[in-house]
Write a structure and sequence with these properties.
five-stranded mixed beta sheet; alpha+beta
């Protein structure tokens, strides 16, 4: 099993639309750990750590997000030496 860690910065209408909790639900269902947190500039930062295919699936989902979100951009960056959290949290 190949593991991967990716950080995403998600732009658009992504705060106040259940984006973080929906991301957490998707992550936990796929055994992906990490976090989703609001940034002061209106974006959401997401760290995803887990099996490569599961992380890719969650990365792909971030481009849509939950029903009320309007994602305009997702910037992905692979993290080579990430501290891997035990679960997925929202902040």
């Amino acid at each position: 099993m190949t593991t991967k860690s990716v950080r995403a910065l998600v732009s658009g209408k992504v705060q106040g639309v259940n984006f973080r909790s929906a991301t957490r639900e998707k992550a936990l269902a796929s055994s992906v750990s990490g976090y989703a947190k609001n940034l002061a500039d209106g974006r959401v930062e997401v760290l995803m750590c887990g099996e490569e295919a599961a992380v890719k699936t969650l990365c792909d989902w971030l481009h849509e997000g939950p029903q009320n979100a309007r994602v305009t951009d997702v910037n992905l960056e692979e993290i080579i030496e990430a501290h891997v959290p035990e679960s997925f949290t929202t902040a």
